[in-house]
What does this fold into?
Amino acid sequence: MTTQQAPEVGPGRPQHIGRPLFHPDLRDNHRFLADRLQLLAEFVHDDADSTRTSWDDRAYLEGYHGALLDLAHHLRAGDYLPGGMLNYPESTAC
It folds into this structure.
């Protein structure tokens, strides 16, 4: 997949998926944000490993760490770009 081509349309995916992605500046912005989220996730993970963190706080921080990494992954993959897997038209949004 090139930086200008979205994943192919598959079963259960909205029809707009698969259109070319002609948004290199937006893609660069998403990659920048993904890098920052990954850095934040590392800080959260380090805090979760801290001996001063209670068990409940540790579990919360580990979940938060995972959520930040998931979001960073989707941003890097282009899933929120126009034509991306998670970029639905407003009419289909919840």
User: Anything to note?
Assistant: Helices lie at 24-48, 55-77. The chain has one domain: 24-92. Residues 1-11 have pLDDT under 50 and may be disordered. DSSP finds two helices and no strands in the chain.
